[in-house]
Amino acid sequence: MTDERIIMPEPVNRCSFRILYGDTDAGGVVYYANYLRYFELGRSEYMRQYVESYRSLEERGFIMPVVKCFVRFKASAFYDDLILISTSLVEVKKRSCRFNNRIHREKDGKLLVKGYTIHATVDRSGKLAPLPDDLMSRLEAVLDYP
User: Fold this and answer.
1) CATH number of residue 64's parent domain
2) Residue 136 falls within a domain, yes or no?
3) Residue 68, in any domain of the structure
4) Looking at the domain assignment, is residue 4 inside a domain?
5) Cα(132)–Cα(95) distance, rounded to whole angstroms?
6) Structural domain for 85, as ranges
7) 17-40 tens-digit pLDDT
8) Quick check: is 77 in a domain?
9) How far apart are CA 19 and CA 34, in angstroms?
10) What is the torsion angle, in degrees rounded to the nearest 10, for the CA atoms of residue 31, residue 6, residue 16 and residue 78?
């Protein structure tokens, strides 16, 4: 059974995004797979704000692909809605980390989606690799946020 509790410990990065027409289906509803893109947007901004950019991590020879994800859909978003993507780091291991996400519609605060992604750390050859010590320290410091 999947743990559907999506806690959001501080620090939480919040970023807004206006739904594009191309993100919707023929009915004007956001196509379900796009929520994972929105999780990515939140995660990228979280890393940039609290740790380091993904670009910097890639320049160091590491990538962090998604190895597991969970999405619980609660309500629909529509073309031109302004959404608020909230992202929180909840777990760091030597070779992986987990980010939790919640997406709300800004105009009414309605929870649209909640979920998480788990990322492995791999080197350029695709082999599982430990996080560099300095990056591990920065991630752990974020987890210890007061």
Assistant:
1) 3.10.129.10
2) yes
3) yes
4) no
5) 10
6) 12-143
7) 999 999 999 989 999 999 999 999
8) yes
9) 10
10) 30
Tell me the CB-side half-sphere exposure of residue 13, using CA atoms within 13 A. Answer: 23
Q: Count the domains in the chain.
A: 1
Q: Which residue stretches of the chain have pLDDT < 50?
A: 1
Q: How many residues does the chain have?
A: 146
For 42-59, what is each residue's pLDDT tens digit?
Answer: 999 999 999 999 999 999
The DSSP output letter for 128 is: B
Q: What is the pTM of this model?
A: 0.93
Known catalytic residue at 25: yes
Contact 129, 95 (CB under 8 A): yes
Residue reference for tokens 């031109």: 80
**CB under 8 Å to 40, separation ≥6 — which residues?**
none
pLDDT of 1: 42
Cis, bond preceding 146 (omega within 30 deg of 0): no
Choice among 25, 80, 123, 134 that is catalytic: 25
